[in-house]
Amino acid sequence: MKLLKDILYKVKLSSVVGPTGVLINTIQFDSRKVCDEDLFIAVPGTKSDGNDYVKDAIDKGAKAILTNSLPPKTFKEITYIKVDDVRQSLARVASNFYDNPSHKLNLIGITGTNGKTTTSTLMYQLFKLFNQKVGLISTNKISINDDEFETDLTTPDPLTLNKVLNDMTNSKVKYCFMEVSSHSIKQKRIDGLNFKVGVFTNLSHDHLDYHKTFKEYRNVKKAFFDSLESDSVAIINADDKNGEFMVQNCKSMVIKYAQKTNSNHLLKILEKDFNGMKINIDGVEVWTKLIGKFNAYNLLATYSLAKNYNFSNSEILNKISLLDSVAGRFEKVYSKKTNKIGIIDYAHSPDSIQNILETINDLKNKSSLITVIGCGGDRDTKKRPVMGRIAASLSDKVVLTSDNPRFEDPNIIIEQMLSGIEKKDKHKVYSIVDRKKAIKHACEMSSDNDVILVAGKGHEKYQIQGIEKNDFDDKLMLKKFLKSKS
């Protein structure tokens, strides 16, 4: 338990009604989870307002209420804290409640449209190979040294985030690699955290259902780098035109990495095939199991971070050759019987699908490329025609299908993807709403040595249809249907 006045340290208060010297058991923003002596935070939302559940929280035993609007009737045994910004306050009190764990380790935040999961996971792998105590907070999972936990969000809510960071500090973690999504920046989930390093991967069209314009999306990402302190470091992809913009007002030291632009750290791809790449980093050649120019950037960001922490150059490069690809990111499934190559990838933005298709085309020689792809429901609709056009123009055949339709009609989503496909490419395109049947059809119409890409869901082991979250694994489906010789 902690004193309320300690939990409120550095929170911008408008007014307080009641004592702050009371002991608080824990913090909740879901009234259903409130217990005796808790602080309930009434978070305003788009679908529901936490202020509507203040009475429920008090009935369940809440000792204090943090809100942006004091109720007309107050109870003398309850302390009410009024603030202007509830989300920011939630992040601050969460950090205080867990004794500001981000200040006790090296917190590295990775942000950008693509590459966040791969880059953060590669960093986690590399530093683990250096026998460091490490933590990972990513789309795929949360890891504390060798222990793994499932997660639903790229960046968790502030309470979960600080609890996990506290668990890490209790486990002696020295370096934590954390994906930082644009949603988490705008919703102030990461406020109050002390980032030692911020990493920028790239920026392209995505999440415009939430941010409305690309300019707003870009400015939200920039806000993360604006918040870095002078004793921190910003590591940016100098080949991305938005890289310099990200650090315009940055107080921290800036380190640049690139494949084409003069930078602190440079990489060139020398050789490549479906087994990996031979690359040159800062004048030294090394083989990596990863594939594609986009993964070369992810590796270079990882190398740049390790150099920043003064690990031996020869040891960094030696260990880079040992790094494995990340689940659901250019993950390969082979059929020895037919010599077909299946690839599962999380690509779900125009830029990411173009990158992966160009990479495959660069490697596949005379084989055909068959792409299975959809777009998520209740998400950015503007990218759907663009993704349909890119998929059809860069594939020999395309099967349009469901992704996570959520509350949308998957047939309408497919029609929107079809609307962007050029007339000359329409003969390549099949529409099969059922994702399982779509993957099966792609495998059945492929020939020996062909490449089948299943894009969009990657590591996910479910499909969201309405309120249902049904078991579905692209990798298992692809393995199953690649077995039979067509």
**Share of residues in strands:** 15-25%
Oligomer: single chain
Number of strands: 26
Residue stretches low in confidence (pLDDT < 50, at least 5 long) are none
Largest sheet: 11 strands, mixed
What gross morphology would you assign? globular
Q: Residue-averaged pLDDT, rounded?
A: 94
| Computed Rg | 24 Å
Structure description:
- The protein is α/β, with parallel strands linked by helices and 486 residues long.
- It has 16 helices and 26 strands.
- The longest helix is centred in the middle third of the chain and has 16 residues, at 293-308.
- It is globular and about 75 Å long.
- The mean pLDDT is 94.
Q: Summed up, what is this model?
A:
The chain is an alpha/beta fold.
Question: SSE layout and pairings?
Answer:
Blueprint: E1 2-3, H1 4-7, E2 13-17, E3 23-24, E4 27-28, E5 39-41, H2 54-59, E6 64-67, E7 79-83, H3 86-97, E8 106-111, H4 116-129, E9 134-137, E10 142-144, E11 147-149, H5 158-170, E12 175-179, H6 182-186, E13 195-200, H7 208-211, H8 214-226, E14 233-237, H9 243-246, E15 253-258, E16 265-273, E17 276-281, E18 284-288, H10 293-308, H11 313-320, E19 331-335, E20 340-345, H12 350-363, E21 369-373, H13 383-393, E22 397-400, H14 410-418, E23 429-431, H15 435-444, E24 451-455, E25 462-465, E26 468-471, H16 474-482
Parallel strand pairs: 4-5, 5-6, 6-7, 8-12, 8-13, 9-12, 13-14, 14-15, 15-16, 20-24, 21-22, 21-24, 22-23
Antiparallel strand pairs: 1-3, 2-7, 9-10, 10-11, 16-17, 17-18, 19-20, 25-26
Helix pairs in contact: 3-5, 4-10, 10-11, 12-13, 13-14, 15-16
Note the main attributes of this structure:
26 strands; 486 residues; eleven-stranded mixed β-sheet; alpha/beta
